[in-house]
């Protein structure tokens, strides 16, 4: 075995030491976000035949050829694609739920105020000359108009808030793409000199995860190990540079540097979908309700007479839900409750109250708008829940593969400890053999 045995034992000591260090490093990072566990890669080392005393013997210990990260690229791709869809639905659902809080439920808010409005006209039909009852009609009309205006303004504020949130997220995306470009360069440099830059690779993977979560970006690996990122087939991270995105318009959209609109998924896409499509649709529906209420009430009110026998003026004014209000000139005396002009005649008030029974009335439209939106919110919430569950399953699967398992690392640590002890024992044995050989050679016969 000779001096070659020392080399074999030393290689075992070196490999075991590297294994112990790496297991300890994994254990130290058991709570580090984004950390991917690593392991040493080792191969058997062949003995050079020219210096072998016994050519039939092969093997010269072990060589550590590098460090590998325990990572599955296919799982990463699947997870990032799922992140984009799940984050889209989560953000979309969140904005719809906030909108639902603004426009209320079908059994409260606007339907309740409109019901009180029709009740006020019913009461006026029974007491057409009563000043308090007349004032109640105006107050009920004010509440309905104010509720519609508040709802419209609340939806408009959500659209503005969406734009503000998008600006913050796009700033994060732009910073992240620049970081990916920098990490690409550093990783390629390290790999070119034979290193495995695990910390840099972990940092890049975290940035790529976040980009997928925010934008639904597609990630591609180049031959030299660089990562590129694209939106709708257009690059935001190429081999050498990153594309800076901007937020434009209100309702907002995201554009490239040349002004082209970016196709996004993820949280950003979910916000854009809600603020550019669904919420403006809610505003349009509220306008329909407001205009139907204004026109139907004004038409019948104009056919009646007030306490002075004068034809009724417009009860409501405004161009839509945003500015609907009871006309400034309306007072309890000018409410046109009568058709004949007699104080005891409440037939015109009764006709207005009858609008409640019209299937195409503003009351029916309001309930339809809120009911339809409630169904949209429920559907969005269900999609977000299902996609979130799938994403969490994939996250758990990746964590099981790439995360640090305490029991496994302790087992690995113990295995390398025993390997180190065995290699040390082998080294001692070889040393003793050489000692006997050196110290006793030529001594016999003295």
Element layout with pairings:
Layout lengths: L1 H27 L9 E7 L17 E8 L3 H31 L6 H17 L4 H62 L5 H18 L2 E4 L5 E5 L2 E4 L8 E3 L4 E3 L10 H37 L13 E2 L7 E2 L20 H7 L8 H41 L3 H35 L6
How would you portray this structure in words?
With 446 residues, this protein is mainly α. Helices cover 62% and strands 9% of the residues. The chain contains nine helices and nine strands. It is rod-shaped, with a radius of gyration of 38 Å.
**Percent range for helical residues?**
55-70%
Give the strand order of the largest sheet, numbering strands 1, 2, ... along the chain: 3-4-5
Shape descriptor reads rod-shaped
Distance between the termini: 27 Å
Low-confidence blocks of residues: none
Number of strands: 9
Q: Compute the number of helices.
A: 9
Radius of gyration: 38 Å
- The structure class reads mainly alpha
Strand content: 5-15%
Q: Overall mean pLDDT score?
A: 89
Outline the biggest β-sheet.
3 strands, antiparallel
- Give me the strand/helix succession: HEEHHHHEEEEEHEEHHH
């Amino acid at each position: 075995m000779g001096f070659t045995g020392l080399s074999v034992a030393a290689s075992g000591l070196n490999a075991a030491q590297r294994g112990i260090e790496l297991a300890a490093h994994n254990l130290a990072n058991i709570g580090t976000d984004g950390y991917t566990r690593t392991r040493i890669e080792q191969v058997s080392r062949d003995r050079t035949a020219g210096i072998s005393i016994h050519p039939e013997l092969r093997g010269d210990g072990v060589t550590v050829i590098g460090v590998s990260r325990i990572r599955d690229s296919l799982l990463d791709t699947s997870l990032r694609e799922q992140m984009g869809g799940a984050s889209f639905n989560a953000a979309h659902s969140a904005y719809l739920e906030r909108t639902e809080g603004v426009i209320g439920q079908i059994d409260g808010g606007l339907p309740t105020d409109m019901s009180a409005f029709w009740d006020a006209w019913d009461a006026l039909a029974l007491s057409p000359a009563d000043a308090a009852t007349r004032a109640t009609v105006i107050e009920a009309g004010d509440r309905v108009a104010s509720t519609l205006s508040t709802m419209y303004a609340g939806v408009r504020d959500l659209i503005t808030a969406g734009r503000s949130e998008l600006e913050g997220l796009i700033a994060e995306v732009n910073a992240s793409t620049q970081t990916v470009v920098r990490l690409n360069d550093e990783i390629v440099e390290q790999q070119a000199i034979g290193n495995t830059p695990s910390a840099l690779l972990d940092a890049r993977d975290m940035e790529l995860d976040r980009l997928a979560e925010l934008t639904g970006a597609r990630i591609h690996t180049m031959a030299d190990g660089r990562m590129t990122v694209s939106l709708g087939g257009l690059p935001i991270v190429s081999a050498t540079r990153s594309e800076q995105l901007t937020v434009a318009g209100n309702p907002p959209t995201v554009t490239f540097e040349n002004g082209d609109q970016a196709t996004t998924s993820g949280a950003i896409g979910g916000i854009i979908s809600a603020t550019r499509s669904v919420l403006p649709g809610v505003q349009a529906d509220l306008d329909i309700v407001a205009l139907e209420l204004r026109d139907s009430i004004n038409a019948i009110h104009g056919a009646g007479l007030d306490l002075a026998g004068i034809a009724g003026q417009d009860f409501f004014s405004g161009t839509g839900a945003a500015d609907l209000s009871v006309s400034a000139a309306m007072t309890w005396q000018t409410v046109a409750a009568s058709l004949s002009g007699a104080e005891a005649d409440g037939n015109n008030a009764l006709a207005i109250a009858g609008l409640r029974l019209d299937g195409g009335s503003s009351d029916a439209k309001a309930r339809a708008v809120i009911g339809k939106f409630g169904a949209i919110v429920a559907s969005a919430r269900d999609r977000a829940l299902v996609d979130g569950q799938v994403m969490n399953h994939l996250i758990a699967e990746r964590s099981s593969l790439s995360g640090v398992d305490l029991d496994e690392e302790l087992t690995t640590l113990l295995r390398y400890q025993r390997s180190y002890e065995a290699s040390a024992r082998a080294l001692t044995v070889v040393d003793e053999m050489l000692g006997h050989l050196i110290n006793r050679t030529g001594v016999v016969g003295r």
